């Protein structure tokens, strides 16, 4: 277990020779594919919409817990660029929940020092949602306790296509030499620019795939899959994932 120095004056009961356990286990940036709302509802013979509603409650709790733990950045997959293929009424439900969530939780973000970020082509969402998002981004821009990135109309391939276009634009204008393009230029052109490297990628609901999420950023992330359905994912589950992360030997190609 990694340890960090006790904060001055701390009376943490876990104190051990001036050290306390670090609940993040050294993870700075975690991302979650929040999957399984539909199956959660089905299991309980409830409408899918209620599964999504419960899913928002799980988001609220996990954001709070991650902030308290000292996680620097968290990226949550809320709506993929492929989710448009769902029935219209489900998309309407999801967009309605998104509206509600931003409106109801913006004060709490601000109070808790959370800086909101959105990755994905959110400008393609309904105008009123774009306005809500833009206001929330502006209002929380100077918060620095934790960055919460929500992936909306996000697809990693779409993100990379947009990044390539912006780099090609710089080449076209003569401000960039194609031979000088490196991995950093690509990272900087992605929606996650400026965020810490992705340490841990979690997927709930037992599916073992990335579904077009953070394909570039996860090059050296640790992966954690759990059968737990997203609405049931809680503090203990997050602690379990972080403990697993802390026990891994990250070699980055070395030995
Ligand atoms: C995740 O739950 C939420 C979104 C993709 C928006 P699902 O709706 O995918 O739930 P399952 O996978 O059908 O159980
Ligand atoms: C991934 O879940 C997207 C989100 C969690 C927002 P999906 O349910 O859309 O993924 P697939 O279709 O099972 O790959
Ligand atoms: Mg799913």
TrEMBL record:
Keyword Secreted: no
Cofactor note (record): Binds 2 magnesium ions per subunit.
Residues that coordinate or bind Mg(2+): 35, 222
Residues given in the record as substrate binding sites: 36-40, 48, 52, 80-82, 84, 86, 203, 209-211
Highest rank taxon of the organism: Bacteria
Region (Disordered): 1-22
Keyword Membrane in record: no
Job description of the protein: Catalyzes the condensation of isopentenyl diphosphate (IPP) with allylic pyrophosphates generating different type of terpenoids.
InterPro entries membership: UPP_synth-like (IPR001441), UPP_synth-like_CS (IPR018520), UPP_synth-like_sf (IPR036424)
Keywords assigned: Magnesium, Metal-binding, Transferase
Complex and partners: Homodimer.
Protein name: Isoprenyl transferase
GO MF annotations in UniProt: transferase activity
CDD domains named among the record's database cross-references: Cis_IPPS
EC class of the enzyme, as a word: transferase
Family (UniProt): Belongs to the UPP synthase family.
A Pfam short name: Prenyltransf
Upper taxonomic lineage: Bacteria, Pseudomonadati, Pseudomonadota, Alphaproteobacteria, Sphingomonadales
Residue numbers annotated as active site: 35, 83 (proton acceptor)
NCBIfam families associated with the record: PRK14830.1, PRK14834.1, uppS
EC number(s) per entry: 2.5.1.-
Cofactor(s) annotated in UniProt: Mg(2+)
């Amino acid at each position: 277990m990694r340890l960090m120095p006790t904060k001055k004056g701390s009376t943490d009961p876990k104190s051990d020779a001036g050290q306390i356990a670090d609940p993040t286990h050294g993870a700075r940036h975690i991302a979650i594919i929040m999957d399984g709302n539909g199956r959660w509802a089905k299991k309980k013979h409830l409408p899918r919409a209620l599964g999504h509603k419960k899913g928002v409650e799980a988001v609220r709790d996990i954001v709070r817990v991650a902030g308290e733990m000292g996680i620097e950045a968290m990226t949550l997959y809320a709506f993929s660029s492929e989710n448009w293929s769902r029935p219209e009424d489900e998309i309407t439900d999801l967009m309605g929940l998104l509206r509600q969530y931003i409106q109801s939780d913006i004060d709490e973000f601000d109070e808790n020092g959370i800086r909101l970020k959105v990755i994905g082509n959110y400008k393609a969402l309904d105008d009123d949602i774009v306005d809500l998002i833009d206001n929330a981004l502006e209002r929380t821009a100077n918060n620095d306790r934790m960055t919460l990135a929500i992936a909306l109309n996000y697809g990693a391939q779409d993100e990379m296509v947009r990044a390539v276009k912006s780099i090609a634009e710089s080449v076209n204008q003569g401000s960039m030499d194609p031979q000088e393009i490196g991995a950093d230029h690509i990272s900087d052109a992605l929606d996650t620019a400026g965020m810490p490297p992705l340490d841990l990628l979690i997927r709930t609901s037992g599916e073992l795939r990335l579904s077009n999420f953070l394909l570039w950023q996860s090059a050296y992330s640790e992966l954690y899959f759990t059968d737990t359905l997203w609405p049931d994912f809680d503090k203990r589950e997050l602690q379990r994932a972080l403990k697993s992360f802390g026990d891994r030997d990250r070699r980055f190609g070395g030995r």
